[in-house]
Amino acid sequence: MTDKPDPDTAGTADTPDTSGSPEPLYTTAKEAGLIGCHACNRVQKRVFTVERQLCVRCGSPLHRRNPDSVARTWALLLSAAILYIPANLYPVLHTSSIVGSEDDTIMSGVAMFWNDGDYPLSAIIFIASILVPMLKLGTLAFLTWATQSGSKWRPRQRTTLYRIVEKIGRWSMLDIFVVTLTVALVRFGSLAVITPGPGALAFGCVVVLTMLASMQFDPRLMWDHIEPSGKKHD
Fold this sequence. Notes:
By secondary structure, the chain is mainly alpha-helical. The chain is about 45% helix and about 10% strand. A hairpin with a 2-residue loop joins β3 and β4 (about 100-105). It comes from Caballeronia sordidicola (Burkholderia sordidicola).
C-alpha cells in the first residue's frame, strides 16, 4: 500500500525554486556579433575577416551605425530651422477676387478660423502647422546634442521620444494638404482665384527636411555611451 501525496506539498520537489534566481542579463548586437542591414533590416552574423561586408539578402553595404548620422542630422535640422522663418512670415495662400486680393499666412489662417468660430479646425491647423514642427525641431536637436555629447541620461526614454517624434512628424503636412485642396476646389469656380504662396513652399521644405533628419538620426548611437552592465535600463 502506497502513501498518497500530500496536496499541500505535491509538485514542489519537481518545481525549481526561482525566488532566488538572478536577474536576466541583456546584451547588445555588437557583443553578440550581429549586424543589421539598413536597407532590408535583416539581422545577420558580422564577418570580421572581410573589410566590406554586404547584406546576404539585398547586397547593400553593412554598417554598425549609420555613417555620419550626427553630422547629416545637424545639417538637415539647421536647414529646416532657417526655412521655418519664411514659412511663417510669407503667405501660404494668395487670393484674388472681384473685391481685391489677400495674402494669408499660417497664423492668419489660424486666427481667421478662430474668429469665425471654427475652433476645432483652428486648433488642428495650429497644432499640425505650428506646434508639431517646432517641437520636432527642438526634440531632434536635443536628441542629437545629447548623443553627440555622450550623455547617459535615460536612454530608454530618449529612444521612446524619438519614436514618437518620428510617427507624428508626417502630420505636419496637413497644412500643405489644406492648401492643395483649397486651390483645387476654388479652381472650379470663377469668382476667385487662389494660388499657393512662397510660404507654402518653404513650409513643405521644412516638413521634408525634418522627416529626412529623423530618418538620418540613428537612435542606436544613444546606447553606445551606456556601459554594458547586462541589466535592463528603465
